[in-house]
Amino acid sequence: MHRSDEARSRLIWTTTARSIFKHLLYNARKNAKKVCQSADPTLWRDCTPTWMRRDYWESLYNIWAAERWQQTSTTMKVNRVANLEANMHTSGYVSFATHQSRLENELKRPPTFQEVFDMTHKKKGTDQYIS
């Protein structure tokens, strides 16, 4: 593996892990809201996920209860609704195999895994990976 491949792989892994972790925390908040029957994070103390240490959970719900976080959350919700196209996965419901076949026809050769991955994970016309 070349050094540039290693750096690129690390970047993609980090970006993917960050996104997955973000969704994991979102689901933890959503579940706490449902189980505790309250949208108030200060009432989530006893709703610690089984996979998380209690002291980490306490730190998180204190962050989520802070006014600054609440304001940022509201702003981001408004932004997501206002710009729906920016929040869509580039491959949609088309399978990876279908994308691979289409790219093979376009390139007139079998595409590399990286080429198909980039095609399905980057914003069109840019070199930027989607979240």
From TrEMBL:
It holds the Pfam family Transposase_24. This is Uncharacterized protein.
